[in-house]
Recover the amino acids of this structure.
RNA sequence: GCCUGCUUGGUGGAAUUGGUAGACACAACAGACUUAAAAUCUGUCGAUUUAUAAUCAUGCCGGUUCGAUUCCGGCAGCAGGUACCA
C-alpha cells in the first residue's frame, strides 16, 4: 500500500532543503519567461477552511504546471491581517488584536504547510506588520500630494447608545448588534480616495482584459454605471413669496437619462440629504422629522431599495422646464440618493416602474408621452415608440426625441448634456484600531496637514483598552498628542485607520520585492508584473478588483510602476459547500457527529435522533458545516485532498463536499501506485533509457498503440490544463491509467515504455506532486534527486487520429454511426451513411429534401 | 429592489462552444476472488414501452434552425455583490 505519510513528509523535506520553491531574482535568469501566479491573500480568521484549500490547490496546480513547463514562477502567499474580526475577538475574549491575529496566522500556516503548496515562503507578508503598513503610509502621502485623497463628510451607521460607528455587518434588522438600539445615519468627516479621477480608464480598459470572465467585466461595467443624459433645472414657482425665498438657488437641478419624457413629468423629488431638504428642515419641524425618519434606514443600497417608498410633499411647486405653465409638486423622498446625479429626480410615472408606484400612492397625474403598444399596460418602460403629448417632440422615435430634448434644453440654457457615473469615490476612513493609521495631523493653527515622509511610520500603540466602546485610538491620549509637522505646535494625530481594501490594493506589488525598504523595487516589479493568473472568489468581482486596478493606475502615474492593469487572467472560483445538519431543536451539528443510514436519512451518532439535512450552503462556522483540512490530510494525505478537490467540479462552480468521493480520490492514488509496483516487478527503467526513448525517432507507423494513445492523452491533458479545466484533465488521466493497466508492457520496447510512464507521471504531477516524484524515483532510479518533473515534449505526429466516428441523423435524430478516415469527402460520407440499415429504415419511400454533411462529424438526411 | 451568474441521471459532472446527451467519477445493485471481511477485479446503472428497437428527457413556457444542454424572448428557484464582512 502507498504510504502517503512517509512519502509526503519526505518530499516536503526535500523541497525545503533544496529551496525548490524560492524564485531567483530576475537578473539571474533574464532569458527565462516568467509567470506570476497569485491567489487572493486570506484574512487570518483562525482556520484554513476548504474554500481556502480549493483556492490554493487551483493556484498550485497552475504554478506547478507552469514551472514544469519551464517558466520562472512567482507564487507567493501572505496574510490580509488587519480588519474587524480581530477587534471583535479583543472585545469578546479580551485578547489583543495582534496576539489573536498572529496566533491565527501561525495556526493557518501550520495547516497550509502539509498541503505541499509550492509557495516561496521567504516572500511571505502580513499586512499588519510594521514593514507593510509603514510603507503603505508613504503611498497614502503620495496619493494625497497628488490630490487623490481628500476630506469629505459621509454618513456612517451610528449606534446612539454605544456612541460608536458600526459596520454594515454589525447592524442587524436596523439595530446595533451590541446595544440593540435603533441605528441612525450620522455624518462625520472622512478620508476619501478620488477613484473617480480614473473612471474613464477603469471603464475603457475593461475591453482590454480578455483573460477576465465576461461576467466580472459586466459587473464592473455596471458598477461604474456610465449613463448619458441631461442635467436640467426645475425653477421654483413664485420664489419670492414662497418658503424658498431665502434659499440661495432659484431652482432644483435634476439629472435624467430619459429627458424625452419631460413632458410626462408629474413630480420632482429630492434626497433627504439634499441642501434644500436641510434648508427646509430648519424652519419646519415636520420636514425635519421626516428627514430623521429617512435616516433611520440603514445606509446600504439594498435596504434603501427594498424599503417602502415614502415621500413628503413640501408644498413647493416647480415649473416643467419645457412648459413653465405646468406646475409640479416637489417631494422629499427616501429613495432618492444624494450620491448619484444631483440628488434630485423628476418622475414620469407612465414610463417608469418606481415613478408609477410613487404617483399611484400619492395620487399624482400620469401622462403618457410614449405611444404604448395596445398589448402593454402602464407603466410602459421600453424606450421604443413614437412620442405623444410632447409638443415639439411629438411623432419622433424615443431615441431621436432624447437627442432633440437635450439639444433644446441646451439651446434654452435650462440644461446641459451630461455624462454621469454610478461609481463614487472610495471612503477609506475607519473609526477603528486594527488598521493602518492615517498619517495626518490636526493642528489648531495649520488645519489638517500630512506628516512628512521622514516622520513616518506612525505605529499603532500596543497599549489599548477594549473595555470601552468606540475607537481605542481616539481615547489613547499619549498616542494622540503630537506636534504639527508644519509649525511645531502641539497637535493631534488623526485617529482613523484605513479600510483593509487599501492593503489588498497593492500587496501583489509588494510580493515582487517583499524586503525592499521602499514599498517596492521598481526593477523587480517591472519583471514580475503584471500578475499572469489571479485566482480568488467571485465575491471580489467588483470592490477589491476595482480598487486594485485603480491603485495600479495611480501608482503608475506616480512613476512607481509601468503597469496599468495588474491582472491579466482572472479565475473566479466557486464556493465550497457542505450539507448542514440541524436537529429538532434547530441546533447545527458537525458533519462528523452525524451518520448516514442506508435509507439515505441522517441521525445524530450520540443520541440516535434523526436530523434534518439542509442542502448545500457555503461552509461557515455558524452552521457548523465546516470540514477541517488537517483531519483530512492526516487520514488521506495532501495528494488525495488536492486530487479530490480538483476533480469533478469545474473550478468556477460551487463545490459540494462529499466524503465518499474523497475515498475515490484516495483509491485512485493507490491504483496508480499499484500500477507502478506492477511495472517495477518487470524491472525498472533508468534515466538513460528514458533519454533514448524520447530521442528515438519513431514514425507513426512504427509506434506501438500505447505510445500513440499516451500522446493523444498528453495533448488533451495539456489542452485541459491550459484552459484551466482541471477536472477534465483528471478524468482524462484516469482514462490514460486504464489504457496503461490494459497494456502488456512485456511486449513493449523498454525505452518506449519509459516514455509512456514518464508522460503518465508528469501529467498528474501538478495535482499530486508528492506521489509523482516518489513514483518517478521508484521507476527511474535517478542518480540525483529531482524535485520537479519537466513537462514532456508532445509529439503531435503521434497524437493525431486517423479515423473518426461519423454520426448519421435523419431529420436531426440520431439513427446510426460509422467510422471513416479523417478528411473523407462529403459524397463518400453521404454514401456510407445512406447504406446504414437503420438509416434506410427511416428514409425508404421518403423524399430526401436536403442533406447536411459536416466534415469529420456528421451526415443529416432531411426527409419530407 | 438593482447588477451578475447558475439550474443536465440517486449524486458531482462531460458534451472539442449549434452536430451521437450522460465521458470520468461517487453511490447503489449483481458477480469473481476470500473460511470471512477488507482491498481488488468484472458487469448493470435516466424514464417509459408492445424492449435486437422506439418514444420521452438537460428547471418551466415559447421562438430561431435540417439539428438547441448550447442561440433568442419570457418565467421560476437558488447563489454572489450591493460601496464599513473580507
Amino acid at each position: 500500500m502507498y504510504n502517503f505519510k512517509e512519502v509526503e513528509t519526505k518530499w516536503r523535506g526535500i523541497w525545503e532543503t533544496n529551496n525548490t520553491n524560492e524564485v531567483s531574482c530576475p537578473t539571474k535568469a533574464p532569458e527565462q519567461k516568467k509567470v506570476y501566479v497569485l491567489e487572493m491573500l486570506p484574512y487570518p480568521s483562525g482556520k484554513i477552511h476548504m474554500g481556502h484549500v480549493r483556492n490554493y490547490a487551483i493556484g498550485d496546480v497552475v504554478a506547478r504546471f507552469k514551472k514544469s513547463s519551464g517558466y520562472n514562477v512567482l507564487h507567493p502567499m501572505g496574510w490580509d491581517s488587519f480588519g474587524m474580526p480581530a477587534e471583535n475577538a479583543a472585545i469578546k475574549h479580551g485578547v489583543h488584536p495582534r496576539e489573536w491575529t498572529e496566533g491565527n496566522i501561525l495556526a493557518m500556516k501550520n495547516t497550509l504547510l502539509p498541503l505541499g503548496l509550492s509557495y516561496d515562503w521567504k516572500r511571505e507578508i502580513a499586512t499588519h506588520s510594521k514593514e507593510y503598513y509603514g510603507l503603505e503610509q508613504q503611498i497614502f502621502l503620495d496619493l494625497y500630494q497628488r490630490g487623490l485623497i481628500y476630506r469629505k463628510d459621509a454618513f456612517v451607521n451610528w449606534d446612539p447608545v454605544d456612541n460608536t460607528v458600526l459596520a454594515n455587518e454589525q447592524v442587524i434588522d436596523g439595530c446595533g448588534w451590541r446595544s440593540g438600539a435603533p441605528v441612525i445615519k450620522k455624518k462625520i468627516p472622512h478620508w476619501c480616495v478620488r477613484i473617480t479621477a480614473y473612471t474613464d480608464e477603469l471603464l475603457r480598459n475593461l475591453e482590454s482584459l480578455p483573460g477576465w470572465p465576461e461576467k466580472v467585466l459586466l459587473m464592473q461595467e455596471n458598477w461604474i454605471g456610465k449613463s448619458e443624459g441631461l442635467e436640467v433645472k426645475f425653477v421654483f414657482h413664485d420664489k419670492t413669496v414662497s418658503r424658498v425665498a431665502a434659499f440661495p438657488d432659484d431652482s432644483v437641478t435634476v439629472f435624467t437619462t430619459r429627458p424625452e419624457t419631460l413632458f410626462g413629468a408629474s413630480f420632482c423629488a429630492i434626497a433627504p440629504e439634499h441642501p434644500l431638504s436641510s434648508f427646509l428642515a430648519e424652519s419646519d419641524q415636520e420636514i425635519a422629522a421626516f428627514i430623521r425618519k429617512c435616516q433611520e434606514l440603514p445606509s446600504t443600497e439594498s435596504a434603501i431599495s427594498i424599503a417602502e417608498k415614502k415621500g413628503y410633499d413640501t408644498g413647493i411647486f416647480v415649473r416643467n422646464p419645457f412648459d413653465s405653465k405646468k406646475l409640479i409638486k416637489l417631494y422629499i423622498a427616501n429613495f432618492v440618493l444624494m450620491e448619484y446625479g444631483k440628488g434630485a429626480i423628476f418622475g414620469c410615472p407612465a414610463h417608469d416602474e418606481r415613478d408609477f408606484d410613487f404617483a399611484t400612492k400619492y395620487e399624482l397625474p400620469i401622462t403618457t408621452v410614449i405611444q404604448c403598444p395596445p398589448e402593454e399596460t402602464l407603466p410602459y418602460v421600453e424606450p421604443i415608440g413614437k412620442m405623444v403629448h410632447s409638443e415639439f417632440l411629438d411623432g419622433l422615435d424615443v431615441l431621436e426625441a432624447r437627442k432633440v430634448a437635450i439639444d433644446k434644453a441646451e439651446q434654452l440654457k435650462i440644461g446641459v448634456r451630461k455624462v454621469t457615473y454610478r461609481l463614487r469615490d472610495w471612503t477609506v476612513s475607519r473609526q477603528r484600531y486594527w488598521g493602518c493609521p492615517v498619517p495626518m495631523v490636526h493642528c489648531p493653527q495649520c488645519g489638517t496637514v500630512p506628516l512628512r515622509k521622514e516622520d513616518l511610520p506612525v505605529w499603532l500603540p500596543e497599549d489599548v483598552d477594549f473595555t470601552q466602546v468606540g475607537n481605542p485610538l481616539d481615547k489613547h491620549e499619549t498616542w494622540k498628542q503630537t506636534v504639527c509637522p508644519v509649525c511645531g505646535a502641539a497637535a493631534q494625530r488623526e485617529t482613523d485607520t484605513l479600510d483593509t481594501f487599501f492593503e489588498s490594493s497593492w500587496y501583489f506589488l509588494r510580493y515582487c520585492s517583499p524586503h525592499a525598504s521602499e514599498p517596492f523595487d521598481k526593477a523587480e516589479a517591472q519583471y514580475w508584473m503584471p500578475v499572469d493568473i489571479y485566482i480568488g472568489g467571485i465575491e471580489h468581482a467588483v470592490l477589491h478588483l476595482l480598487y486594485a486596478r485603480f491603485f495600479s493606475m495611480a501608482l503608475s502615474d506616480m512613476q512607481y510602476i509601468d503597469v496599468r492593469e495588474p491582472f491579466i487572467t482572472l479565475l473566479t472560483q466557486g464556493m465550497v459547500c457542505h450539507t448542514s445538519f440541524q436537529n429538532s431543536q434547530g441546533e447545527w451539528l458537525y458533519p462528523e457527529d452525524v451518520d448516514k443510514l442506508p435509507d439515505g436519512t441522517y441521525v445524530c451518532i450520540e443520541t440516535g435522533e434523526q436530523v434534518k439535512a439542509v442542502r448545500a450552503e457555503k461552509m461557515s462556522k455558524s452552521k457548523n458545516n465546516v470540514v477541517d483540512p488537517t483531519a483530512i490530510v492526516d487520514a488521506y494525505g495532501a495528494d488525495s485532498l488536492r486530487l479530490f478537490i480538483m476533480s469533478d467540479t469545474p473550478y468556477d462552480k460551487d463545490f459540494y463536499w462529499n466524503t465518499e468521493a474523497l475515498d475515490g480520490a484516495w483509491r485512485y492514488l493507490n491504483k496508480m501506485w499499484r500500477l507502478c509496483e506492477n511495472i517495477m516487478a518487470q524491472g525498472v527503467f533508468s534515466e538513460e533509457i528514458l533519454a533514448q526513448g524520447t530521442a528515438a525517432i519513431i514514425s507513426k507507423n512504427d509506434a506501438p498503440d500505447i505510445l500513440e494513445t499516451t500522446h493523444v492523452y498528453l495533448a488533451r491533458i495539456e489542452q485541459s490544463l491550459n484552459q484551466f479545466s482541471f477536472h477534465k484533465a483528471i478524468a482524462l488521466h484516469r482514462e490514460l491509467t486504464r489504457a496503461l493497466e490494459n497494456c502488456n508492457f512485456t511486449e513493449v520496447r523498454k525505452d518506449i515504455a519509459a516514455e509512456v510512464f514518464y508522460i503518465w507521471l508528469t501529467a498528474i504531477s501538478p495535482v499530486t506532486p508528492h506521489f509523482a516524484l516518489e513514483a518517478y524515483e521508484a521507476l527511474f532510479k535517478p542518480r540525483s534527486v529531482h524535485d520537479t518533473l519537466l513537462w514532456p515534449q508532445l509529439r503531435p505526429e503521434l497524437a493525431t487520429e486517423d479515423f473518426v466516428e461519423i454520426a448519421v441523423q435523419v431529420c436531426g435524430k440520431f439513427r446510426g454511426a460509422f467510422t471513416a478516415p479523417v478528411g473523407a469527402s462529403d459524397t463518400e460520407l453521404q454514401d456510407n451513411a445512406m447504406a446504414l440499415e437503420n438509416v434506410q429504415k427511416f428514409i425508404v419511400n421518403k423524399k430526401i429534401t436536403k442533406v447536411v454533411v459536416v466534415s469529420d462529424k456528421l451526415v443529416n438526411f432531411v426527409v419530407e
Remarks:
- Chain A has a mean pLDDT of 90.
- Chain A is about 35% helix and 20% strand.
- The first strand of chain A starts at residue 34 and ends at 39.
- The first helix of chain A runs from residue 4 to 18.
